[in-house]
Every structure is written in C-alpha cells, then in structure tokens.
C-alpha cells in the first residue's frame, strides 16, 4: 500500500510534524511501510476507502508509525512501558471484522 500525498499529509498531522525534513519523510515512509506490513502479518487487510473500518485501520497504522518514530532511540528512559489499550482493542476489532474471502 503506497503512501500517497493525501495519506502522508494526514500522517504528518497525526505525528504533529509541521515542516518535515527529507530525513523525517524517509523515516516516516519506512515506518509506514513497516506498519502496513505489521497489519498484514496480523491478518488485517487494507479496507475500502471511506468506510469506518478504513478509519480504524488508518488510526492503527498512525499509532504504529508514531510509536516507531518516538522510539527511534536505542534506549527507553524510565521503568514503565505499556501497550496502549485503545490500540489493542482496535487491532482486535479489525481482526474480528476482517472480511472472509470466497473459498
């Protein structure tokens, strides 16, 4: 799934990056590809555009990209690292609502 200009603009807004450098754009593109791959590996295919399921999918991809962007450093400061429960619920819902192909 290619990162279109429209999708990049929404992703930059989610990540609160107003004037990205070329390096930041390359990093975000790589993180986007990795997030889409993660979703595919989790058994979640990209839904049709303009559907509520597409909005949920995009939100999960955005979360994964921002999480990867924020955790680029080698170490994590502090002792508390936890999953976002809202993200986990969205992933579960998308898995449960994945359309089944015809056999």
Descriptive notes:
- It is built from 4 helices and no strands.
- The chain is mainly α and 103 residues long.
- Helix 3 (52-70) packs across helix 4.
- The model has no long low-confidence stretch (mean pLDDT 87).
How is this structure best summarized?
This protein is mainly alpha-helical and 103 residues long. It has helices at 5-15, 22-41, 52-70, 85-96. The chain contains four helices and no strands.
Distance between the termini: 24 Å
* Mean pLDDT figure: 87
Q: If helices are DSSP runs of H or I spanning 4 or more residues, what is the number of helices?
A: 4
The global form is: globular
From the alpha carbons, calculate the radius of gyration and give it in angstroms: 15 Å
Q: Work out the strand percent.
A: under 5%
How many runs of DSSP E, i.e. beta strands? Answer: 0
Query: Could you list the spans in which at least 5 consecutive residues all have pLDDT below 50?
Result: none
Largest sheet: none
Element pattern in H and E:
HHHH
Structural class: mainly alpha
* Approximate helicity band: 55-70%
Per-chain topology:
Elements: H1 5-15, H2 22-41, H3 52-70, H4 85-96
Helix pairs in contact: 2-3, 3-4
Provide keyphrases for this structure:
103 residues, mainly alpha, 4 helices, 0% strand, globular
């Amino acid at each position: 799934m290619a990162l279109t200009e429209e999708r990049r603009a929404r992703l930059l807004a989610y990540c609160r990056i107003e004037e990205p450098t070329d390096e930041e754009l390359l990093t975000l593109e790589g993180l986007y590809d990795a997030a889409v791959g993660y979703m595919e590996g989790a058994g979640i295919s990209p839904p049709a555009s303009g559907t509520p399921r597409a909005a949920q999918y995009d939100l999960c991809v955005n979360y994964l990209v921002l999480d990867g962007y924020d955790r680029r450093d080698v170490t994590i400061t502090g002792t508390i690292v936890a999953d976002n429960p809202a993200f986990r619920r969205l992933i579960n819902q998308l898995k449960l609502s994945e359309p089944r192909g015809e056999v």
